[in-house]
Specification:
The protein is mainly alpha-helical. It has one domain. 70% of the residues lie in helices and 6% in strands. It contains 5 helices and 2 strands. Strands 1-2 form a two-stranded antiparallel ribbon. The two termini are 13 Å apart.
């Protein structure tokens, strides 16, 4: 079932487009030395965006000053806008019964996009 949902997500839920966007932004961020940590988070989100069904993130964050500082910077410059984008994509998908699983994935991404530093992606 996960395989079918992942294929449908990649085609109809916007998975390929999201993964390409995250990967492109990750490449742009990695151009500068300061942007490399942000680029790495974009690559992590790109991998999850391509096939999200069957994967979850571990919310027991690795606490540390670096992660908190990077999450604050991410939140101010990217997190809010990415969250709004995912929520805007979730609303029309939630209207139809068929789109509800895809809408739930967008909500998961919206929460993850607010502060991705210190989160681990794992198989569920």
């Amino acid at each position: 079932m996960r395989f079918i949902l992942n294929i449908l997500w990649a085609i109809f839920g916007g998975g390929v487009v999201m993964a390409l966007e995250y990967a492109l932004v990750g490449l742009v961020c990695c151009v500068t030395l300061i942007g490399i940590p942000f680029g790495m988070q974009c690559f992590k989100l790109a991998g999850l965006a391509l096939f999200p069904f069957g994967k979850d993130y571990d919310d027991s964050r690795q606490r540390g000053t670096g992660n908190v500082l990077l999450n604050i910077i991410w939140f101010l410059f990217a997190g809010v806008w990415i969250c709004i984008t995912h929520l805007a994509a979730a609303v029309p998908l939630a209207v139809s019964i068929i789109g509800i699983p895809f809408a739930l994935q967008h909500v998961k991404f919206a929460l993850l996009a607010l502060s991705p530093f210190g989160i681990r992606i794992r198989e569920s």
